Amino acid sequence: MDHLAIVILNYNGYSFLERFLPSVLAHAEGFPVYVADNASTDQSVSLLRDRFPAVRLLQLSRNHGYAGGYNAALRQIPAQYYVLLNSDVEVTPGWIRPVLALMEADSRIAACQPKIRAYDHRTHFEYAGAAGGYIDWLGYAFCRGRLFDTLEEDRGQYDDDRPVFWATGACLFVRAGVFHEAGGFDASFFAHMEEIDWCWRVQRLGYQIWTCGRSVVYHVGGGTLPKTNPQKTYLNYRNSLLMLYKNLPPERLFGTLLLRLVLDGISSAVFLRAGQWRDIGAILRAHFAFYGRLGALRPVRNQLLRQAGAVTHLPVYTRSIVWDYFVNGCKTFCQLAWQNKEPQQQNQ
């Protein structure tokens, strides 16, 4: 069994593999590098065989998406720790050791991420993860270093190591035993927000999620689905509702979903004003897909409620990030209500 395995999930990512695998191999610090190919139709597999023989190739039978693809791949990889790494990430010298040392020092840490900077704007944080993620009480995700589309410059303001609510799947260090104990990712998500759902579940089992400010990588972002793609809109809205339904406590479920229905309607009006009709359709499809699955989701939710341990208070932002950003003008994480304090705990 390897101590740590670096695992890249690939789907038609020939250009990213060609560009970024050399840096991964150069800075792997002796740990094995796997590429799990999600039945690519480009020349990714030929590239790996011809030019990167040191990479351990796993070929999956079909495109399982991010969630199902990693589930299938990690079942085949014996290791104590996994690094789930997007194919469009450039790593840096020494990126592994600080995160690994942090996790080895505390067995309660189930997952951890480095700082994620933007590959094309290298002084600033990247959208997908930045310096560690949180959600507000309505389930809207945001990060230290990124609120909605506002990306902060990295001036060292988030160089600490600390617990967060979620860590990004773009570069996710995971304790293998906990990953499998929690049942892996929810494969029905296919892609987007599955890591937030997983982080929520493992915290309720008594583990913690951290961010490590002493490690940094650079992420292109949107390599498989561009940010403006309606399919990404659909997955984000649908998966957010799935996550809330699965994980919210009974006393908060109905009210939260009702408010999300209202706010998602408002966001549709924003898309309408911008003429983005396909995104409006994606939001409608997301809601109908969610409502259509409620019957199948109910036993899943009940099982999770039975499995949850004694930990019910998690680092959730108790205000509305939507209100604080768009109405109160809070454009950076440090301007939020918990400035200079640890995030408040809320029953989740």
UniProtKB/TrEMBL annotation:
List each copy of the Glycosyltransferase 2-like domain by range. 6-130
The keyword Glycosyltransferase is annotated on this UniProt entry = yes
- Leader sequence range is none
Keywords, comma-separated and alphabetical? Glycosyltransferase, Transferase
Top-level taxon: Bacteria
Q: Which InterPro entries match?
A: Glyco_trans_2-like, Nucleotide-diphossugar_trans
Pfam families listed in its UniProt record:
Glycos_transf_2 (PF00535)
Record's CDD domains?
A: GT_2_like_c
By sequence similarity, the record places it as follows: Belongs to the glycosyltransferase 2 family.
What is the protein name stated in its UniProt record?
Answer: Glycosyltransferase family 2 protein
